[in-house]
Amino acid sequence: MSTQNLVARAQKTFKDQPWRLYGSQISVLVRNEVRRNLFIRRRFWVYLLALIPVLILITHNIVTRYNNDPAQMENETVVLAGIVQLYYFRLGIFFACMGIFTWLFRGEIVERTLHYQFLVPVRKEVLVVGKFLAGAIISIVLFETAVLACFYLTYSRFGSAGRSYVFDGPGLGQLGSYLLVTALACLGYGAVFLALSLLFKNPIIPGAMLMGWEAIVPIFPSWAQRLSVTFYLKHLCPVSLPVDGPMAIFTIVAESVSPFVAIFGLLSLTIAILVLSCFLIHRIEITYTAE
Amino acid sequence: MTPDARQIVFENVSKFYGEVLGVNKVSFSLEPGVTSLVGPNGSGKTTLMNLLTGLIKPSHGAIYVLGLTTHQPVEFFRQVGYCTQFDSFPPGTNGYDFIYWPLRLHGFGHDQAAKLTNEALERAGMSQVARRKVAGYSKGMRQRIRLAQAIAHHPSVLVLDEPLNGLDPMARAESIALFQAIAKQGMHVIISSHILEEVDRISDRVVLMSSGYVVAEGQIKEVRREVRDHPMQILVRCSNAAKLASAAFELDHVVEAKILNDGHGVLVRTRDAEQFYLLLNKIVSAGLVEVDAVAPADDDVNSIYQYLIGSDGGAA
Lengths: 291, 316
Description:
Chain A is mostly helical. Chain A contains 12 helices and no strands. Chain B has 2 domains: 8-218, Rossmann fold; 229-307, Alpha-Beta Plaits, CATH 3.30.70.100.
């Protein structure tokens, strides 16, 4: 078949089946972005963010290798909850998503390559979804691996007692919850940072403001807390952390929500922000010199 | 105006970057063939091309390409290929992938995309170096790989921003031949170039721009005819130059008739070229002068550009 006929036939096929085309485009975009953004030297600091607790736990396990009293397991469970909730949710995943998701479009503007994405027959909404999914895959793979490693390192040192806690006790359920919450955190923060990168030339300052908001949100009324990512994540965590420190006196304990509402709420928030991004992408013009 | 499915139409298009004018009140329509945008730096050529392809949005007005707008990106970019002036590439990409992956975004399967990629590489003369990283390419090679990407999906409208920049003479000739071949297939080729001699040679029509305005547009000869204020120069190589010069001086519209240094020709400046040609026919018929060659001496883009905006188009 001549290339002219080949082009004409492909065009007719996709004219008749646009959703098939969108699906195929999203798949290509995801593959391309993952290939370009996962396992590259520029992302070293993101890998470091994910691996810091793993490295600390490895060190901890080496130092305390002769002190494996199963009585400490409860304490270690709280430490693991602290690592996930205080480090990963508030710092690790937050900053990694800031780096990964803002770079999806801003990075292409900095590298002056975004015009290639705008000169192909791809709807800009499809571009947003494709890039978002790629960012989500990268961050989820990275942080789920890190959380899994932390979980293994926390309980493996207790030998049979640890195995029993994981497989016969609440361990496996807790792991499932942590993995689910990690994925939701990546989706939620990812959507927020993707939108910020389309809204601002320098998304770092609004990112810092968002971090401030997520930190102080517990002192706000319940309805305001629903506008934060951590509100939903907190309700899905299997182990609660004691509220103490100076912030404790300001903290309003929000009404608890069911896991279904928390998951649905966070996914709704993510989708709403993605829809906003689909509108924002249409404002972007290729004027690299002005950036 | 109803958008024509064969034309490229600019309807009263203006673009402002804040308070800075990009282009202002541009209205014209283009038929298939080779069209050149000519003008000095900052005249708005690239802005016009970026508007045409939707990389920037007009502040006012509308643009239709074969009846489509960039609000229909799937249909639009199947018809349009744009080789921009941005000399940047996705990090780490090689020549083959640079063409192959956008084709996959067009919806082509692996085999189809591979076939089209190889064809485009061959047309651009880049097959041998396709697997090398683009970062290691020379400027001319980078130019050609961008051209290959722009033509890979067989667009009906090919937009080329300074496509001959950085090309060696052989590659230039090959590229020009390629543009002409594409135009002969009934497609639009829109080129901006500062090499006016080449523009002159390959263009069916020109759009002359200055400071964001279109100062003239149409076939080069038509545009030249519009420049009535400026006498046209006609070079006549002949046997009896003095006789021809004195005959020419008798005509009101001839403002100058200069005998060439070698004495075998006259350079005539006239406000009415057709009348002069009639006179020349009479003189030749009467056997007073033997004419070897007659040619307009300033019927090129460069001269027209100088007449229209008082600037050398070569500075573009």
